Prior knowledge:
The chain has about 400 residues and is α/β, with parallel strands linked by helices.
Amino acid sequence: MKIKGAYLIVCSPDRNFVTLKIETDEGIYGLGDATLNGRELAVASYLTEHVIPCLIGRDPFQVEDIWQYLYRGAYWRRGPVTMSAIAAVDVALWDIKAKAFNTPLYNLLGGKSREGVLVYAHANGTDIAEAVDSVQKHVDLGYLAVRAQSGVPGVASSYGVPKGGKPYEPAERGLPSESLWSSERYLNFVPKLFQAVRSACGEDLHLLHDVHHRLTPIEAARLGKELEPFHLFWMEDPTPAENSDAFRVIREHTTTPIATGEVFNSFWDAHDLIRNQWIDYLRMTIVHGGGITALKKAADFAAIYQVRTGFHGATDLSPVTMAAALHFGLAIHNFGIQEHMPHTALTDEVFPHQYTFNAGYLHPGEGPGLGVDIDEKLAAKYPYQRAYLPVARKIDGTLTEW
Ligand SMILES: [Mg+2]
């Protein structure tokens, strides 16, 4: 089998997605997600101009060799654009191989280690009462794990809280919006939120919270300590992770489990955090971390240190990445949890998929390959529209982490 051609499908069914389709001379094709939220066309161009010409004529079964060729062969390593492009190729090749063997992808990754992939949903509200209500609604839908976010009194717009009653969607068309932030008000508020959620929803529910990189290490340490009575499943991205040592500070002060890595694009971003056991869950994604080939190595390394996976799963990862993450999560031993932020009905229509939700778990389905496709005719009706994630400033105007 040889790679005959490849091309990009850039579309915007409610939000932007970049999808790579690789075709073979035997009629089998594979899909890979190349979406990098807010920088989508950079990855599309990287693939079209620099990667696709190198793929033609290659054996699509040589997944490892092609990964090494694109990573080492470019000379310029890492970075979100490069690694998202490599991921798209890698996932499409795994899809082709599994289809060629007429088996679901998880069987090529070691076979299933569990019956379903535990997922967590996003609950949010403008205040504590609304947030508690939202958590309860997700419990009623069958979720066993829920991330709770709430508007903070005195902070005009908080991360994770939707505007105008719509489902939460951070990417906005047009130029980036700006919001104001106060760590002091947030820190005083969050323990009250979790006290209310825990007492309303009981002890069995897994509760998660995303700090979204907004605190300093010692502020995050304080938050983790104050949240201990509510035994969270994790505290996510407590502080920016470029400096791994920041997590040592947090770790020395609290037993609240820590998850990070959704912005990582290389195993090396996570290496020190894992080997020092400063985190409990690795949030790297298949699409931004270099694909299944790269994440399998990262997950196996993490397993040695009892660090489990908890992959990012926001709507800026297409159903192609969600399917890949579900096959991956079903197969590896040290799977922890998978984020599940459902796509809109229109996105689901453009990307018909086999994965299903049942009683708190997602399952990738038993069809060959990833079990996800793209309706190119429908996708063509929704062309790319420039969109960005928001930007945050402190109350005095200083730019800070969104
Ligand atoms: Mg997050």
